[in-house]
Amino acid sequence: MYAGIKLFLFFLPFLLIVSPGKAQEKNSFQVEEGYVKRINGDSSNEMVLKKVLIILPESGNILQIAAFSPYNSNEATIANESPFSSTGPAFTLTVEIDRSLIQEYLNSAKTFHAHAHLTINGITKDVLIDYIPSPSGTEEKGDFNISAFIQFNSCDYNPCEAGNEKLYLIQIKNAVVNRI
Fold it and tell me: Which top CATH class is 2-10+30-179?
C-alpha cells in the first residue's frame, strides 16, 4: 500500500503538468477545489484547497485523492498554522471502494463509510471517510462524481502540546472522479 502511495505521488506532478485542462473528453484531468475547516473550540476557520485531484484506475478499487496549495480566504495566519506541508501535496488519501455498490446506489444519495489512509507531511494514519457518490452524466460508462468528508486531529501529523489539538475537516463537494 505504501509503495502504491509513493508511486502515485511520483507521477502526480507529471499528470498535473501534462494535462492541466478541465475537459475529460480531451483526455485531460479535471481538477477541483476542496475546503479544510479548522475547528478550535467554539470557533472555526476555513481554508480553500486548490487543485484537488481524484483518480480511480480503470482496473482496481483504490480511489486516490490528492490536494495542493491550501490557503485561507479569511486570515493569513490560519495558513501559517496549517498542518499541511508548504511543498508537494497538502495531503494524499487512498480508500478502497466497491464499484458495483456505488453504481447500485448512485442515485440514492447514500453515504458510504470507510477506513482510509491519509498522508500529511510524510506521516500516514488511518482515518474514517464518509463519501457520497453522485451521477456524472456518463454513469452508463461507470463514471461518477463524489463528495467526501475526512476528519483528523492536527497532533496526529505535527508535534503539538497537550491541550493545543485542533480538529480539521476536509470537505470535497461533487468532484469529478478521473478515470485512468
Answer: mainly beta
